[in-house]
Every structure is written in C-alpha cells, then in structure tokens.
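Recall from the previous chapter that SMILES is a line notation for molecules. Here it describes adenosine-5'-triphosphate.
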Amino acid sequence: MVAGHTRPRKLLVFINPYGGRGKASRIYYSEISFLFQLAGIETDVIETTRANHARDYILEADLQTYDGVVCVGGDGMFSELLHGLVKRTQSDSGVCEDKENAMLTPCSLRIGIIPAGSTDCVCFATVGINDPVTSALHIIIGDTQPMDVCASYNDGQLMKYSVSLIGYGFFGDVLRESENLRWVGPIRYDLAGIKMVFSNQSYRGTVEYLEAYESNSSPRDNTRCRTGCLVCSESSERLREAAEECQADCQSDTWKKVTGSFLAINITGMSSACPKSQDGLSPTAHLADGTADLILVQESSTMQFLRHLNRHTNRKDQFALPNVEVHRIRAMRFTPEEFDEEEAIRRQKRFFGCPCGRTSETSIWNCDGEILNCAELSVRVHHQLIQLFARGIEDTSRS
Ligand SMILES: Nc1ncnc2c1ncn2[C@@H]1O[C@H](COP(=O)(O)OP(=O)(O)OP(=O)(O)O)[C@@H](O)[C@H]1O
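With both inputs in hand, we obtain:
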C-alpha cells in the first residue's frame, strides 16, 4: 500500500513473559530471534515486569535509533504499544490529545506483532493468520500496512485508543461479567456471553453519528479489504477533497441521530475477523480508509438476537435483520437516557415474565477488551494514525 518502505535495521522488542499463559518468551527465543539475526536486524529486547511497562518505556525512551517497535504477546500488548507510540508522537509534536477535534500526528515508527497471546485479533485481521514466523517475515521484509485508530472521549478527556471493537450493551456487559468469572479461566467469555444473551438487556439512549464522506465503499457491499486495497490507498486524496468541499459548502457537519433501546452499539474500525468468526463483526470494514462501521442492534427477542450473533459464524448477512442497522462513519457520540421506576419494573418482568433480567440503567463500554467505566462516549476515527509491519489479508480467491 505504501510503496518503497525500507527493511528495518534496528528494532525495540517487548516480550510479555506471561502472555499466552507463558509461551511468549519461548516463541521469541526459539522461533524468532535467530530470524532477525539472519536478516541482520539489531534488536534491543525488554521482558516486561509489569502491566504498562512497554507503554511507559516508549513514552520516555530515546527512540531515534529504531525503525520499529515489536511486541511478543497478545492484543493487550499491542494496545500498550499503540498507546505508547500515539501518546509519545503527540507529546513530541505538541498536540493536545484531549481535544476531540485535534488533528493527531501520525506515528512514524512501525509496529510489529509477533502473536503469542491468548487473543491475537489485531494480528489476524492484518496478516490473515496467527503465526509468529509469518509475522516475523513481514517485519524482516519491511511490509507496511497503515491503520486507522479510533479515539474515545468522555467528559472532555481522552479515554482510550483502539483499532477494533468499541461496544456498549452486549459486549460491554459480557466483559464486565467475565471479569467476575476470572477464576474459571478463558471459558469465562463464553459463560458470560451465554448469561448476557439470556438476560436480553437493552439500554435506552441516543446515538449520533457523522457519516463517512461519499466514497466507493459501503458496509453492505460485497468487497473485502485485502492486500493493496484501493479504497484504503485512495482514501487520503478522497478525504482531502471532501474536507475542502465541506469547508467551502457547509458551516458544520450534519450529525444523524437514532434514539432507541439498544441491545448492542458496536463500532469497529476493522472487520474484527478472528479465528472464531472468519468474516468478523463487519466483513467489509476497511483497515485504513478513515472510517469505522457503526452497528446498532435494537431491542428484540432473545431468539432474534441469537440469530444475529450466530450469523457472525455462518457467513449469512448479520445485518439483514429487522432490528439491525449498520453505517459507515467518521465519528459517533452516545448519550444514555435515564429511566424511571416504571421502566425498571417493566425490565424486571420482561425476561420470560420472571424478575431475573438485569435492571441496571446503563451498560459500560468494551474498548478493545478493556472496560471504560462510563456510558456517555464520543468516538472519532483518525485516518492512518499508525503503521504495522504487515500487508493486510491476501486475496486467495484471485489465485
Ligand atoms: N510482566 C507483566 N506482568 C503482568 N502483566 C503484564 C506484564 N507484561 C504485560 N502485561 C499485561 O498483560 C496483559 C495481557 O497481555 P497479552 O495481551 O500479551 O497476553 P494475553 O495472553 O493475550 O492476555 P489476555 O488474554 O489476558 O488479554 C496486557 O494488557 C499487558 O498490559
């Protein structure tokens, strides 16, 4: 996508020794380090000793001699590198991250992911496979995949950066519930999921969104973001033209509004494909076109919601259901609605007529697997803010 990117000569590597239940160090030293050596790549390797060690190191270190930073671990470690690099780049260039309308400065250092965690969704969605050697080879030959980043804000403050799912309602509740079930191990996500499907909890509120600029893609078309994706590579020019036109023609952007009772509000900056759901939450979402897909699932029966969820695994169209809508967006804001006592009683009675449904007024946000303990949220997509050592998923249907 970005032609002429050079091979890295020096890398800063972080290994989470506890990643993937302890397999990250073994993977790096037995399968990867000698490949870097063979390719003549110099490395500085740091085994992390605590959560946020990698993020904090990147914020302080002299990074001038490196061509990239690499994590050996899962999505949690990738998130540390993402936050460290984006924050560091903004502070170096004097940009205030808390300003929602700030034009963030793109990061010049590339990020490599050697998948060695229990969840490696970012690697899967950008390489097409979770295989440490494949990822190492992408790093060695200097493949470059730009990537959009979503920034979430609450009450005038930056909350988090993310590249895949930001979910309220179902996915927020599943994460909150799974934290209570930590003691049962990785199966906690499945157990929490089953519990939350049957609790059939929906949350009232208003979603406002800014649609993507006119483009040649839509969340309901049949295209896929694949290696050399034209939608992504042509997006810079398109975004510039659209911004200029808008400045000339309109005073302010026009926000669209949906008020309702939502089982799930999901924003995904990429398809969020993973081994369990090969097409992901939004199969046609793009990695680097400056947009995210907003999926709204309105209140419906448990069976109807199960149908929607099930379609993520069987390749049927998960959006072709009466209570589901999807939009390609640049920004979104959500305002929860407080409910009165009558509504609380109605909720208690809804679950098969018995008072076992949950009655909490608001859900929380699940931001790439981390809890954001707030209901009100604004999200903005930042076009190609980071670059990965990857080349996107290759289109095997053409060969
Ligand atoms: N040395 C350390 N001790 C404790 N936590 C760490 C350490 N290094 C990194 N972490 C944290 O561990 C979390 C999980 O790491 P990672 O994503 O690599 O592994 P994982 O096996 O996929 O984990 P999980 O499935 O629990 O997210 C990260 O959020 C990271 O901040």
